[in-house]
Amino acid sequence: MDNKLRDRIDRNLAEIEAKGLTRKLVCPRGIDFSSNDFLCLARDERIKAAIVKAVEREGVGSTGSRLLRGERDCFARVEKQFAEFKKTSRALYFNSGYQANIGLLTAFLEDNDVVFSDEFNHASLIDGIRLSKANRVIFRHRNVDEIAKLLREAKTGGQKFLVTESLFSMDGTIAPLDKYAGICRETGANLIVDEAHAVGVFGERGSGLIERFGVESEVFLSMNTAGKALGASGAFVAGDAWAIEYLVQKARSFIFSTAPLPAIADALKTAIEIVREENQRREKLLNLSEFFRQLLNENGIKVSPENSQIIPIIVGDSKKAVKIAAALQACGFDVRAIRPPTVPDNAARLRISLNIGLTKEILHEFVDNLARVINEN
């Protein structure tokens, strides 16, 4: 190895540390305020039993990509179930949300196309757009007037796409999907929605914000992770059958990846059934969010009134955010600091992610400690 390479890496690591941006792998400990297990399904006994039984039937490894020997009937069954859940004609299961977004964006976006992306979109959307050959236009977060103007004025010999999260992962804000759908209808644009943090939480059936806004027929494709509210892993892309078939033929992250653990399909089948049948879980989560936001504001910690299970507490300075998070961890609360480049410069924060295992008493205790720690720092 060239010593110059080691020197360069050492300099880069030193710069990361100086900015307070060093990342560490830390196992869960303390009361969960940071995971995406919103409905507490990751340890649900019914889901654990389903996957154990499926392992006995299917074995462990899939042994190959789904286009080789990795395909199983259980994948087709859960994809059909999820498509019905999202009110689409077909769905395709990927190993992860990142792979799903990379696959769908690079498959559909071509060199004569133009894609409009919210400035706060997740890294997987950003990377998928960068890897495509489309012309990229970034618009201000949830700025309806700006995106309407951009789409109306856009000149292209290809297709136009609007790409957005429905519930933004670091801000807990909700995209105006109904307005986006109207703009896309008017301008002939294709709407792609990442429902990673919304599926399982919003809508009468729990299928997400697309359902809540009633725009199922106007969304070209949605990406829905299964490792958050659904408590397992992987992700579904849902849409028209012809679009999903095109992904099977063109999505490199699907074609060239070993298929997931087959037994995960049975776990997901059970999780989807629970979400559909136990709407009290979703109601409890959003009630906790409303209570928690009010409690924070009453203690002088200002947060958005928008009701979702993700609540960012903006600190600004990265080192200070890490220090506050460490102090709360010492009190028994597993909360993590989120720093650039995950969020913009000078916008480091505590990303509070609620789950239904929390109680109002725990939330009171957390806010009391948070207010104290902020005052001390």
With strands numbered from the N-terminus, the spatial order across the biggest sheet is 2-8-7-6-5-3-4
CATH superfamily of the largest domain: Type I PLP-dependent aspartate aminotransferase-like (Major domain)
Distance between the termini: 44 Å
Broad shape: globular
Give a quick account of the main beta sheet: strands, pairing sense, barrel closure: 7 strands, mixed
Radius of gyration: 21 Å
- What are the low-pLDDT stretches, counting only 5+ consecutive residues below 50? none
Overall description:
This protein is an alpha/beta fold. The protein has two domains: 45-277, Type I PLP-dependent aspartate aminotransferase-like (Major domain) (Aspartate Aminotransferase, domain 2, 3-Layer(aba) Sandwich), CATH 3.40.640; 279-376, Aspartate Aminotransferase, domain 1 (Alpha-Beta Complex), CATH 3.90.1150.10. It is 45% helix and 15% strand. The protein has 14 helices and twelve strands. It has helices at 3-18, 45-58, 73-86, 97-108, 123-131, 144-153, 177-187, 209-213, 241-250, 252-255, 264-277, 279-298, 318-330, 360-376; strands at 31-32, 90-94, 114-118, 135-139, 160-165, 190-194, 221-225, 235-239, 310-316, 333-334, 337-338, 348-353. The mean pLDDT is 95.
What's the helix and strand layout?
Layout: H1 3-18, E1 31-32, H2 45-58, H3 73-86, E2 90-94, H4 97-108, E3 114-118, H5 123-131, E4 135-139, H6 144-153, E5 160-165, H7 177-187, E6 190-194, H8 209-213, E7 221-225, E8 235-239, H9 241-250, H10 252-255, H11 264-277, H12 279-298, E9 310-316, H13 318-330, E10 333-334, E11 337-338, E12 348-353, H14 360-376
Parallel strand pairs: 1-10, 3-4, 3-5, 5-6, 6-7
Antiparallel strand pairs: 2-8, 7-8, 9-12, 11-12
Helix pairs in contact: 2-11, 3-11, 4-5, 6-7, 12-14
